[in-house]
């Protein structure tokens, strides 16, 4: 199986089950083997902090998947989708036409993970564990 096929299969499994820790770990390993330390570290952080994109099943003008700002009184309140403010602020490739103050939405879990990796790469500071 080609490397791109392996990555594609793992991403497809996250589209099917956005919180699949086996696929998240395997993607961390895959990125590490390819020399992408930032993406590998991102997936390691996701697994150790039990994070995954949230899912909003009802009709919405935004995408059905989201990352949420970790704050005292979140609007959606999905703890596994909450990110610390420094990381959340770096999410730039979401699907809202207008900025939303506490969540960023996406058309798929895959696109939410892709934006998270890019946000991780752009940070100049360590992302805290949120437990």
General description of the model:
The protein contains five helices and four strands; from the N terminus they run αααβββαβα. The N and C termini lie far apart (36 Å). Strands 1, 2, 3 and 4 form a four-stranded mixed sheet that branches. Helix 1 packs antiparallel against helix 2 and helix 2 packs antiparallel against helix 3. The chain has one domain. The chain has 131 residues and is an alpha+beta fold.
Proportion in helices: 40-55%
Mean of residue pLDDT? Answer: 90
Basic shape: globular
Order of helices and strands: HHHEEEHEH
What would you report as the Rg, rounded to the nearest angstrom?
14 Å
Question: Helical stretch count?
Answer: 5
**Number of spatially distinct domains:** 1
The secondary-structure class comes to alpha+beta
- The parts where pLDDT drops under 50 for at least 5 residues are none
Question: Describe the biggest sheet?
Answer: 4 strands, mixed
Relative strand content: 5-15%
Give a count of the beta strands, DSSP E runs of length 2 or more.
4
Distance between the termini: 36 Å
Q: Identify the quaternary structure here.
A: single chain
SSE inventory with pairings:
Elements: H1 3-16, H2 21-33, H3 37-48, E1 54-55, E2 65-69, E3 82-83, H4 85-89, E4 103-106, H5 109-122
Parallel strand pairs: 2-3
Antiparallel strand pairs: 1-2, 2-4
Helix pairs in contact: 1-2, 2-3, 3-5
